[in-house]
## 1
Amino acid sequence: MNVATNSLKDLPEALAGRLTLGAIARLDPETLLHEHEAAEVLLHSKRTLERWRSLGKGPKAKKIGARRVAYTVGAVLEFAGVAA
């Protein structure tokens, strides 16, 4: 499986630090967002995303290693109802 290596560091400076649906929609759908970044985009807490995951709700998460969780931009946009 090929994992995209894009990151928020690749965003133009004007968008850096402003995590919105519009800003991430410009990224490749396979770009991975850290859990706290996805929570900021969705305007929910990291804890809410954790709870949704345990209930099988929310955007589809990817397990990275033993403890890290990430979300693809595509999964976050799909969950938010924004066409990717």
## 2
Amino acid sequence: MLNGLANWWDGVELWLAQAWFPVQFVLVMVVVVPLCLLVAWIIDKLVERCARWLGTARDDEGPSGS
């Protein structure tokens, strides 16, 4: 099964490397950019949950008035 997947990926990679540059650019913009945005959103949510779970290191009262 892994050999089949590796052969398929090699074919896709060869096709993409031989494609005209504007086609490569469009594919990156359509596939990679949304994927990166999704991963960034997931990381943001995970960090937010961890920060909420750990609490804040500062007082929630704000700076003391002098």
## 3
Amino acid sequence: MDARQARRLHEERLMALANVSGVGTGRDEDSGEEVIVVFVTRKLPREGLRPEDVVPDELEGIPVRVLAMADPEGPEGR
């Protein structure tokens, strides 16, 4: 299974998690391997999340990366 297939399989569940604003695929900057990318409004420590809202480290053997998106209404977006 490749990253796109794994993303499609799990996208609905990932989008239901707290702070998740999008899901995609890409390549890890260091290793070049395919990854699932989960975009969040802000990155929080795992211990600050409910267990059911933690983004998994991998899905179907594909690594998952979490990227925080800047708030377009915040100071950076103006």
